[in-house]
Amino acid sequence: KVRISPIHGKVHYLLCDPTGACATIEYLGGKLVSHSGDSLETPNLTNSPYSQSMTFLKKQKDFGGKSTKPTASEESLDRFVRISRSIRDFKPSTKDPVKYSFAALDNVRMKTSLWQIIYESAQKRVHFRFAGEKTHSTIDLKNLNFKCDAKLLAMDLNGELTGEKRKFVSYNGKLNYSLLKSSLSKLKSDAFNEQVIQGLAAFPDATS
User: Fold this and answer.
1) CA dihedral 54, 58, 60, 66 (to 10 degrees)
2) Rounded to whole angstroms, how far apart are CA atoms 184 and 201?
3) Comparing C-alpha atoms, which of 137, 128, 130 is closest to residue 163?
4) Which ranges in the chain belong to alpha helices (H)?
5) Which residues contact 64 (CB under 8 A, 6 or more apart)?
6) What whole-number percentage of the chain has pLDDT above 90?
7) What predicted TM-score, i.e. pTM, was given to this entire model?
8) How many angstroms separate the CA atoms of 11 and 203, rounded?
9) 111-129 burial string, b = 16+ CB within 10 Å, else e?
């Protein structure tokens, strides 16, 4: 019932729920393509379609294929192989899942990567850091009020790891405008003129 309309770049999604069930959502050739359950052989995505990534993965010797070529580049398919290995080799009883996940993200990090985010869906926790940082921030969703009449909060993720800027503050339209102005202007697209940015920034207030 929900369709995602692309605004600028082509994107695809990996969704997971607190039970550990995951699904890919992709729009290919004008059609919705999804993988879940048995068709989701490894729950991860890089920047290539899932089926293309799986075809490449199965060519690797340690995944049943014959290829022994290095997969150490920043190319999407190589990164898919490396993160698949990390998922396969994870042993919950012997490894800290958050520490292990950040190490896995470091292993597939691109030079242009800005953020590393880990979602512990069952525990309802989110961990995040700037790529390259050694420490991270954590948001415990169980401590937040999600009721419709709750006070709206926002966080400046570009702030320092310690200090007021990484704490929740009261939401206001100026914060949203500042974020959209900074983000959309980098796309250098005529579609995001000042009038459009102002309209987008005001949307949450118009629908609350």
Assistant:
1) -150
2) 11
3) 137
4) 50-57, 76-89, 97-107, 173-185, 194-207
5) 58
6) 59
7) 0.85
8) 23
9) eeeeebebebbeeebbbbb
Three-state secondary structure call for residue 116: strand
Distance CA 198, CA 206 (A): 12
Residue corresponding to tokens 């005529």:
190
Cβ atoms of 72 and 58 within 8 Å: the answer is: no
Mean pLDDT of the residues in the chain: 89
Among 119, 130, 114, 115, smallest CA distance to 97 is for 119
Q: What is the pLDDT of residues 93-143, one digit of tens each?
A: 878 999 999 999 999 999 988 889 999 999 999 999 987 788 888 999 999
Neighbours of 183 (CB within 10 A): 11
> Helices 97-107 and 76-89: crossing angle, nearest 10°?
160
* Residue type present at position 64: G
For position 167, what pLDDT does the model report? Answer: 82
Residue 173 neighbours by CB under 8 Å, 6+ apart: 201, 202, 204, 205
Amino acid, single-letter form, for residue 50: Y
3-state secondary structure of 85: helix
* Rounded Cα–Cα distance for residues 2 and 51 (Å): 23
> 154-183 pLDDT, tens per residue?
887 776 655 555 788 889 889 899 989 988
